[in-house]
TrEMBL record:
Keywords: Transferase
A biological-process GO annotation: deoxyribonucleoside monophosphate catabolic process
InterPro entries in UniProt: 2'-dNMP_N-hydrolase, Nucleoside_deoxyribTrfase
Origin superkingdom: Bacteria
GO-annotated molecular function: 5-hydroxymethyl-dUMP N-hydrolase activity; transferase activity
Protein name, entry field: Nucleoside 2-deoxyribosyltransferase
């Protein structure tokens, strides 16, 4: 059975554990095993916050190594871009040669997706005058090129994964 690491800021939701279960049930509908970061808890003996962070980091990297591919929630998180931890996980998985799949609630390219409060006066520039990528991709090219991105949710991304990997 194909193993799929479930990346994204869902782990920060108030219902993070329930969301993980919903994602894993959805994966099972597609004949895929979902590996969710919260499947394993920090051992009780690790109490210092920095040690807990290191444990979580290593545990997540191990889950990515075990996975055949990654499915990522790439919706904006705490700003206009995807969660930085999710971006790192995708980069790590890409370095391992794993296929990447993601989903966004809404379509459009970077310039279209950038919220008005982040846009500058000059087209293609943000409020600080920095260039906004104009490659027609929904995200920064370092995510938009290697990842197959579905518009919708995890179901749509799993349908894309099925077309790419399971047919």
């Amino acid at each position: 059975m194909l193993k799929l690491y479930l990346a994204g800021p869902d782990v920060f939701r108030p219902d993070a554990f329930e969301q993980g279960e919903r994602l894993k049930v959805l994966c099972a509908e597609f004949g895929v095993q979902g590996l969710y970061p919260l499947d394993h808890a920090v051992p009780d003996g690790i109490v210092e916050p920095a040690a807990q962070a290191r444990w979580i980091y290593q545990a997540n990297l191990e889950l990515i190594r075990q996975a055949d591919a990654v499915l990522a929630n790439l919706n904006p998180f705490r700003g206009a871009e995807p969660d930085s931890g999710t971006a790192f996980e995708l980069g790590f998985a890409a370095a391992l040669g794993k296929p990447l799949f993601g989903y966004l609630d809404e379509g459009g390219n970077c310039i279209e997706r950038l919220p008005c409060e982040w846009q500058g006066q000059e087209p293609g520039r943000d409020r600080d005058g920095n260039q906004v990528e104009a490659f027609g991709l929904p995200l920064n090219l370092m995510l938009g090129v290697p990842a197959k991105i579905a518009v919708g949710g995890p179901r749509e991304a799993l349908e894309l994964l099925r077309e790419e990997m399971l047919s």
